[in-house]
Each structure stands twice: as C-alpha cells, then as structure tokens.
C-alpha cells in the first residue's frame, strides 16, 4: 500500500505548488472530516471513463481505451485521501520526441464535496504534451449520472466480448460475422455509425471491429478508413494505422491525410508527417476545433501553424502583380 504522502520542505517545487493550491482550496471551505464518498464512475473531458473503487484505505481508478489507448482495466489512478485531497499518482500518456509514452505522475487531486468533481494540475516536461489534459496541464473528472454509470459496465462487457470473439475468429469474414452477432445494435445503426460512437466514447477496440465490418461492406469508405486508423492509433498500433491510412490516400478525403500525418508523427517520421499534413491543406482541410479531430490537431499544432503561415505567404505573393523587368521596349520608369 502506498505510504501516505505529506507536504514537506524537501518535496519538489511542482508538488509544493500543488500542495499550496490544495491548502488554499481547503482553507476556502472545501475541507471536511473523513474520506469522501466518491461516485463509482467518472468522466474526464479528454481522459474517458474512469471506474473507481476502494481497496482498504486506497482509492484505485481503472480505464479502458480513450486517447491513450489503454488496455482493458488499466490502473490509471491510485492514492489515499487526506480530508478532501487524494494524494497519489495518475497515469498519463505523452506526446513529444523525447517524452515517455506513459508516465505515472505524482498528483494531489482535489475533491469538491458539493458537486463531486475531482481536479488536478500537472506540469509536464518541456516539449511534452498529453492529449488527456486540458491545455496540457488540467485533469478534470466529473461524476457520471446513474444512467451513464449503468452504460459504462455494458460498454466494458461489449469490449471484452469483442476481444474474445476476435481472438478466436478465423479470417476476416468470421471476425465480421461475430462482431455483427455479438455486439448488437447492428439493426439500429450502421457499422460505420456505431464505430464512430464507440470511438467517441473511447472504446477503441470495439470501434475498430465496427470499422473493419464497415470496410468489408464498402472498401472505399473514406470515413471507415479514418475511423479504423484513428482506432488503431488509440490502441497504439501505429504501424498498422500507417498502412490503413496509406491505403486510403487515393479516396479524395482530406482528413485521411490529417490522420496519416499524425500516424507518421507517432512513428517518428516528421518529414512524411509534414508532407501529409500539407496534402490535407491542399485538399481543403482547415483546423476548426472538431471534436473528432482534436487529438490529431493538438499533436500537430506546431506544424499546422507553420503550414498555415507558409500557405498564407504563398497566397499573398500570388495576389501581388509582378513588375515588368526593365529592358528594351519597356516603358515602365
């Protein structure tokens, strides 16, 4: 069991700052006696659904999928309460050339007893970003409603069923048949629509199988290619995502190139990433803060700014009429 952490003079400056923020919040009236009673499921703005349980005096949270592509029931949060402050650690995924893909960060998570919201601030290393943190610094977890909590176990069960079905399937046709039979909802919505729903909910493994089924019916569905590539990236299957998205380059859809640029970046090939991002712009893609593209857009934000600036300069040069060169027969003074 984790030893109960205490704020003391030898704690790193970042934790001292968090400790000071916690003390201020407690002093402002949030503190109360005893550990709080937390909801069983929480929803992070970007993190996805986190299921919480108490193990003795320790709170443990697990998550599946999400922007980090966590394996089923990955432990992402643990710690002990001191009044309304959870002292422990949080698992973060990171982006950046010299950043650990996943790292357990020490955390002081403040619990607000009025609304049940849990918040924590982080300071990542220079050059590192995390798609699960707002502005690469804030983690915000809100308790799910009872209806939403009831849906979460069903999604987890669907993910388990889909994983088991895929492991025992022989060939793509068998896998697609088991997805159609085991996951349900096929009579209500198309595989493409259900894949997009599951992907938005952070269930990348389930979404991947729906997109595979959609492509088995329509191999030229650009939307299914994008969804499958995004699911594979969420599951950290980067090499397969690159192959999926490369196969869709000729479908004439700009966001295929956007996600391929992100896949190349994850692969460590920045030159190809910038080239693919430029093609996305040439085919009409523009950053618009779309929720479905938030992870890729955030990861590529520096190159997006560079290419936007370059294209603006090119448009400006085209608008300025060229001055005739001086020479024989030229009447321009």
TrEMBL record:
<feature type="region of interest" description="Disordered">
    <location>
        <begin position="311"/>
        <end position="333"/>
    </location>
</feature>
<dbReference type="InterPro" id="IPR011990">
    <property type="entry name" value="TPR-like_helical_dom_sf"/>
</dbReference>
<feature type="signal peptide">
    <location>
        <begin position="1"/>
        <end position="33"/>
    </location>
</feature>
<dbReference type="Pfam" id="PF14559">
    <property type="entry name" value="TPR_19"/>
</dbReference>
<keyword id="KW-0732">Signal</keyword>
<protein>
    <recommendedName>
        <fullName>Tetratricopeptide repeat protein</fullName>
    </recommendedName>
</protein>
């Amino acid at each position: 069991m984790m030893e109960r952490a205490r704020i003391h003079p030898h704690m790193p400056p970042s934790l001292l700052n968090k400790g000071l923020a916690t003390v201020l919040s407690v002093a402002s009236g949030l503190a109360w006696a005893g550990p709080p009673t937390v909801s069983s499921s929480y929803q992070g703005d970007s993190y996805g659904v986190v299921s919480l349980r108490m193990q003795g005096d320790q709170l443990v949270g697990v998550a599946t999928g999400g922007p980090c592509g966590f394996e089923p029931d990955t432990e992402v949060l643990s710690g002990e309460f001191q009044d309304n402050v959870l002292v422990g650690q949080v698992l973060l995924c990171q982006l950046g050339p010299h950043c650990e893909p996943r790292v357990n960060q020490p955390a002081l998570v403040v619990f607000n007893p009025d609304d049940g919201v849990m918040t924590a601030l982080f300071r990542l290393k220079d050059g590192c970003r995390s798609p699960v943190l707002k502005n690469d610094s804030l983690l915000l977890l809100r308790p799910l409603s009872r209806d939403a909590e009831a849906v979460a176990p069903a999604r987890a069960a669907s993910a388990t069923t889909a994983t088991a079905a895929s492991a025992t399937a022989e060939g793509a046709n068998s896998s697609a048949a088991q997805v159609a039979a085991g996951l349900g909802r096929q009579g209500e919505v198309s595989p493409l629509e259900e894949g997009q729903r599951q992907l938005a909910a952070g269930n990348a493994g389930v979404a991947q199988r729906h997109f595979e089924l959609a492509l088995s019916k329509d191999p030229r569905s650009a939307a299914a290619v994008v969804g499958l590539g995004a699911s594979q990236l969420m599951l950290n299957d980067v090499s397969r995502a690159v192959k999926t998205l490369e196969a869709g380059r000729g479908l004439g859809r700009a966001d295929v190139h956007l996600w391929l640029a992100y896949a190349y970046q994850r692969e460590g090939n920045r030159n190809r990433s910038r080239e693919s991002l430029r093609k996305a712009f040439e085919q009409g893609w523009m950053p618009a803060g779309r929720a479905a593209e938030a992870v890729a857009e955030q990861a590529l934000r520096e190159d997006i700014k560079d290419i936007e600036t370059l294209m603006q300069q090119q448009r400006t040069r085209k608008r300025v009429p060229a001055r005739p060169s001086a020479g024989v027969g030229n009447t321009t003074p």
